[in-house]
Amino acid sequence: MARTAVVSGGGTGIGLAVAEHLAAAGDDVILTGRREDVLAAAADKIGKQASYVAADLETVEGAAAVLQHASEHAGRIDVIAAAAGGNTAAKAPADLEGLQRTSWAWTANLRLNVMTAVHLVEGLKPILNDDGRILLFSSIAAYRGSGTGSYGASKAALHPYAIDLSAELGARGITANVIAPGYIEDTEFFGTAMTEQRRTMLIGQTDNKRPGNPGDIAALAAWLASPAAGHVTAQIIQSNGGALAGR
């Protein structure tokens, strides 16, 4: 019997790659994000196993919309992959300065990286099957900083959240884990900000001397979401080519 997975940020980048891997393994996938046209294109690419619901998971109302769609289309779900996120620190309104600008960046990153995950997971808990899987997505920045404070801190907040989810739900066979990627190409994360000099520096930090790609993270996510990973829970697992040693 096919499982059902809900993937936030499922229209592009890591989220889309995760959805594709899960669908390839036979799972039905529900994509969610804010841009309906992007979600529609992603669902069309995946095929009949995919549906989508446009929702802003920074809000409770967005989580409620995902719950309604999942309840109507699947009844119960088996995998939650909270891949929505990003770094808003450089996108503060131009008229903000000093403490106001700092406060805006911190609040925006907490909403985008923490509350989107919390709203999705907590909203879907009532229909999460026993032996389900919860996947959160952090960053190498959670360990070594991001230069702005707010992005790395917002990703680090997901680590104890997964540990608490594991303790709360583990007796039902539900696992909760975090994937912390290093530099990943072919996503919208950097926009036009990535320079060749910085790219060379980031690749040079790895042991395998290559950038990561969404497929690297999706393959790990698919395994953590599988029955084979039932004894792996409350873990923060890095995937960075050796750019930061395990800790």
From TrEMBL:
Pfam families: adh_short_C2 (PF13561). Belongs to the short-chain dehydrogenases/reductases (SDR) family. The keyword Oxidoreductase applies. This is SDR family NAD(P)-dependent oxidoreductase. Its EC number is 1.1.1.-. Residues 3-187 form the Ketoreductase domain. Keywords: NADP, Oxidoreductase. GO terms for molecular function: oxidoreductase activity.
